[in-house]
Amino acid sequence: IQLTQSPSFLSASVGDRITITCRASQGIRSYLGWYQQKPGKAPKLLIYDASTLQGGVPSRFSGSGSGTEFTLTISSLQPEDSATYYCQQLNTYLTFGGGTKVEIK
Amino acid sequence: EVQLVESGGGLVEPGGSLRLSCATSGFSFSDAWMSWVRQAPGKGLEWVGRIKSKTDGGTADYAAPVKGRFIISRDDSKNTLYLQMNSLKTEDTALYYCFRGAPYDYWGQGTLVTVSS
């Protein structure tokens, strides 16, 4: 199963609402997670089962979707959200999307 | 406190072998499905493979690029996960992470494997 993320790069201002899309090459029900990775660090789980917020993750992060199309939304972008974001499917083995680098203007 | 500590990385020539270890503590390792993920320098995350818990069969699955060359195993008595890498290629150069996925989100710090002559 291939995961296609868009955009691959996003530049936005503090306070902006941003959305990242992840499209699966075939249906994966709701077996999708979103990870945040900062330089030199291991990835951090933000969302699993498409829309369940991982404990300790700020509520400005949210996920939605099922089947083949999913979104990660940050409702009010903060400086510490500068990172690369990956979607991951768990329906059939595991696959990661190509990543979306988020830059703060 | 949950800890995952990878070791065994290093420089190896193409065609060579290397065994990575991931020593864990702080959670029930024997119940966990564990995975290896790698990240080539400046690139994205790539799933390498996973092994199920013994109660779920203990079998391993692999990504296409490593199938037939890499072997994942586990020693539940030592709470340790292994990745045996054979017939290494230059494109296997990466930082290798062990992890337990959602909803647990346990990751090691990674161990660097460099395949070069």
What's the layout of helices and strands?
The complex is a heterodimer of chains A (105) and B (117).
Chain A: E1 3-6, E2 9-12, E3 18-24, E4 32-37, E5 44-48, E6 52-53, E7 61-66, E8 69-74, E9 83-89, E10 95-96, E11 100-104
Parallel strand pairs in A: 2-11
Antiparallel strand pairs in A: 1-3, 3-8, 4-5, 4-9, 5-6, 7-8, 9-10, 9-11
Chain B: E1 3-7, E2 10-12, E3 18-25, E4 34-39, E5 45-51, E6 60-62, E7 70-75, E8 80-85, E9 94-100, E10 106-107, E11 111-115
What does this structure look like?
The complex is a heterodimer of chains A (105) and B (117). Chain A is mostly beta strands. In chain A, 0% of the residues lie in helices and 51% in strands. Chain A contains no helices and eleven strands. In chain A, strands 2, 4, 5, 6, 9, 10 and 11 form a seven-stranded mixed sheet that branches. In chain A, strand 7 and strand 8 form a beta hairpin. Chain B has 117 residues and is mainly β. In chain B, 0% of the residues lie in helices and 50% in strands. Chain B contains no helices and eleven strands. Chain B has strands at 3-7, 10-12, 18-25, 34-39, 45-51, 60-62, 70-75, 80-85, 94-100, 106-107, 111-115. In chain B, the strands form two sheets. In chain B, strands 2, 4, 5, 6, 9, 10 and 11 form a seven-stranded mixed sheet that branches. Chain B has a four-stranded antiparallel sheet with strand order 1-3-8-7, with no helix packed on it. Chain B is globular and about 40 Å long. The termini of chain B are far apart. Chains A and B meet through strand 4, strand 5, strand 9 and strand 10 of A and strand 5 of B.
Which descriptors apply to this entry?
heterodimer; A: 105 residues; mainly beta; seven-stranded mixed β-sheet; four-stranded antiparallel β-sheet; 11 strands; B: 117 residues; 0% helix
Describe what is shown at a glance:
Chain A is mainly β and 105 residues long. Helices cover 0% and strands 51% of the residues of chain A. In chain B, strands 2, 4, 5, 6, 9, 10 and 11 form a seven-stranded mixed sheet that branches.
